[in-house]
């Protein structure tokens, strides 16, 4: 009787576990495994690379070769050159293993790229913290390289330009066709990207960077603030733009003698080096009676000096601040 009762309990527990597994399999979210995900192929062999091959216990089959300009190598145990262009170490090891298997039973083959010379480094410079050349050994995108260079400086504008002096090695046909379409007799193919879009991680603004690519983070166009401000400054116009009030604030504000009712903005005329003068009453902007002025590249903001009243001049003399007055007025000594 006890045995029968024990068997019934075991059967009940087994059925409960089985039912729970079926419910879990129906309600659990789908999990992506490594095999489902897109995995980078790794380093792809190209001309100039030096490849070392070793066969365990069979030193006669060991080799050290350089990939020729056609992407091929020659080994003693093959009558024909082997095409290794754009193959990975794993793919080449499988091919070499088949060749050696003609002479050796179950060969253990090791393949290693000992010198990677087929790809020039990518270059990143301009308004980044660490201008440098980077040797790329795997698939890399623009945003990662910007981070690798320490990010952009405060003087960076909103434009990043990627030059591609040579067709990308081992790229897919679509990318090669894009390069050919951009290539012209007049210059090196390039594309321009928005810094904001790159930071957002948008795929269309975060391209794959290939060896030999040149990345330039352009400097923001400057605005110059001169005259009666606390600090004479060259201020970059960032991607968000720069208003007159922001420029004055970055220059430390006005000095005590500033004529805020008549600020002059000297702006370049289109397709010319001549400048037009835009006069702005800063007081009306501050009171909200006039919209703030957005500055343009190469603008010169000139803050003039206001004329002093008699009371202000006397105050300057008493405080020792009116150097121009004390230099002009004659001085006598009363004994």
Task: Throw out a few tags for this protein.
335 residues; alpha+beta; wza like fold; Outer membrane lipoprotein wza fold like; 3 domains; five-stranded mixed beta sheet; 9 helices; disordered N terminus
General form:
rod-shaped
Number of H- or I-type helical stretches:
9
CATH homologous superfamily identity of the largest domain: Outer membrane lipoprotein wza domain like
Lateral strand order in the biggest sheet: 7-6-12-9-10
Task: Kindly provide the name of the CATH class of the largest domain.
Answer: Alpha Beta
Arithmetic mean of pLDDT: 80
For the largest beta-sheet, the strand count, sense and barrel status come to:
5 strands, mixed
Reading the helices and strands in chain order gives HEEEEHEEEEHEHEHEEEEHEEHEHH
Task: Give the number of domains.
Answer: 3
User: Looking at CATH, which topology of the largest domain would you report?
Assistant: Outer membrane lipoprotein wza fold like
Number of strands: 17
Question: Strand pairing plus helix content: what structural class?
Answer: alpha+beta
* Gap from first CA to last CA: 135 Å
Structural summary, described in words:
This protein has 3 domains: 50-115, wza like fold, CATH 3.30.1950; 122-219, Outer membrane lipoprotein wza fold like (Roll), CATH 3.10.560; 222-305, Roll (Outer membrane lipoprotein wza fold like), CATH 3.10.560.10. It starts with a helix and ends in a 7-residue tail after the last helix. 26% of the residues lie in helices and 25% in strands. It has helices at residues 2-27, 89-100, 142-148, 173-182, 195-199, 244-250, 282-286, 310-319, 323-328; strands spanning 50-55, 63-66, 72-73, 82-83, 109-115, 122-126, 132-134, 140-141, 156-163, 190-194, 208-209, 214-219, 222-227, 233-236, 258-268, 275-280, 300-305. A 5-stranded mixed β-sheet has the order 7-6-12-9-10. The protein has a 5-stranded mixed β-sheet with strand order 14-13-17-15-16. The relative contact order is 0.09. Strand 1 and strand 2 form a beta hairpin.
